[in-house]
Design goal:
5-stranded mixed beta sheet; 5-stranded antiparallel beta sheet; globular; alpha+beta; Sulfite Reductase Hemoprotein, domain 2; 6 helices; Sulfite Reductase Hemoprotein, domain 1
Length: 240
């Protein structure tokens, strides 16, 4: 596993810093700003993957990394690993269109999977509604909230290519726990079947979608609540 730490053409080094799906606290922002000023970082850039890129002279890179880690942040893992997770702010508190808590799910997925080794860099994207602001169908593993703490799951997408690929939907309205179980299975099959440095989508094209599908019970939609029972509970003032 490598880290997001690269030499640029101008001789500076870049550190790719990850937060919790793009979320940072005010304290972390202040600490990052102080480190940037102290170490003479000439530029800071927000990336499309919800990370922060910091440019720094090589001799100051170690000190900057230490400052980043002291704030509870980290340099993003890189190369053939599960990359930092993208998640929109979808939740009842933050987005009026949200059908589920995409941010909390994305953070849980990042905590569990980011940095795991895979044949080729693996991107996870979570969206809180079908608008898909985080482009879940352009990710190796895309999740879209479907309402009632259920989610749709697609696999095999990617955009960073002259031949981009749209992810294929493999599960509809599965419960939250099933998202993790499905991802565990997909990663296991990907590691077992993919050629070195082969994207999941290319492996799907070569071997067929069936080779990566989880057991049927993991793909079973969550049971819909009985509308009559929900109405009765509402009338009685009972919790759903």
């Amino acid at each position: 596993m490598g880290e997001g730490y690269f030499k640029q053409r101008n001789g500076l080094y870049v550190l790719d810093v990850m937060g919790a799906c793009g979320l940072m606290t005010g304290e972390q922002f202040r600490g990052l700003a102080a480190a940037v000023a102290e170490l003479g970082v000439p530029a800071v850039k927000l990336t499309t993957r919800q990370t922060v890129v910091l440019l720094v002279p090589e001799e100051k890179a170690a000190a900057l990394k230490a400052a980043v880690e002291s704030l509870g942040l980290r340099v993003a893992p890189y190369h053939n690993v599960v990359r930092p997770v993208m998640a929109c702010p979808g939740s009842a508190d933050l987005c009026p269109r949200a059908l589920g808590n995409a941010l909390a799910l994305g953070q849980a997925l990042q905590e569990r999977y980011t940095g795991q080794e895979v044949p080729k860099d693996f991107k996870i994207s979570v969206a809180g509604c079908p608008r898909g602001c985080t482009e879940p169908y352009c990710a190796d593993f895309g999740v879209v909230a479907a309402g009632g703490e259920t989610y749709n799951v697609a696999i095999g997408g990617f955009g960073g290519s002259s031949r981009p690929r749209h992810g294929e939907l493999i599960a509809r309205r599965v419960p939250r726990d099933a998202v993790f179980a499905i991802l565990d299975h997909v990663l296991e099959r990907y590691r077992a079947l993919a050629q070195p440095r082969e994207k999941l989508g290319r492996a799907v094209e070569r071997l067929g979608l069936e080779a990566f599908l989880p057991p049927a019970q993991l793909l079973r939609p969550a049971e819909e609540p009985d509308p009559v029972l929900l109405e009765l509970k509402a009338f009685l003032g009972a919790p759903e």
